[in-house]
Protein: Protein tyrosine phosphatase
Organism: Intrasporangium oryzae NRRL B-24470
Amino acid sequence: MHQPNWIELAGVVNMRDLGGITTESGEVVRPRRLLRSDNLQDLTPESVRTLLETYAVTDVVDLRTHVEVAKEGAGPLRGIASVRHHHLTLYREDTEESGIPAAERALPWETDERRAAAEAAEHRPGHDEYWSEHYLSYLATRPDSVVAALRAVAHSEGAVVVHCAAGKDRTGTIVGLALKVVGTPDEVVMADFAASAERVAAIMERLRARPAYAENLAGKTVAQQSPQPDTMRLLLAALERHYGGVHGWLGGHGWTPADTERLRRKLLAD
């Protein structure tokens, strides 16, 4: 059974190392290659030193919107010359000023009629279908950012931190795709995705204290915001059904076999 490798640092509540995950072929993701996290804005100087010295972080993939970054700041790692930053939002940037748009069901295989029917149905936050469609909208809306994020992971010299605000939705989608590219079983990807549920109460407490997120979280419950394994299962199943899997979707957006090999060498090589 997958056991999350939590990284307990002051300033974050949902950071973990993907090291130790085993692929279908028996290869193992190496530690200190790929980290995932919530917002890095509150990292203390000691936490920054730990990431630089203990984890050898050289790259940060920031999946937040430009408005989020403007309101919250880029975070203390932004001022470190040795750390490359890749700002790759998964939302359109022509939405309302909040910068945290509602989930759009912009699924390429749906007709306008089916999409309207979905909007009329009772897809309340907390339903696996709601969230899987939310994550699929990232891929439909910003395939350029999805591919660029995976390439940033593949080409990082040291450890790379992928993060958004909570470290569970946008981050979970990108990390899940990365794990599938290198051959991780669906069940393991689902388990890693759902591990953030352990930290959702702390995540919400932290984000409710931030102006950029307080209104968006008003009235939301821990249960509604907790990631479930079936959400990732539905996401992967949709990609399999419509594109032949993660590789098929990525291949349709410029991802190459060379990219796959580069990511495998990054995450799995000794």
Observations:
- The chain has one domain: 5-265.
- The chain is about 45% helix and 10% strand.
- Strands lie at 5-6, 16-17, 34-37, 57-62, 84-87, 159-163.
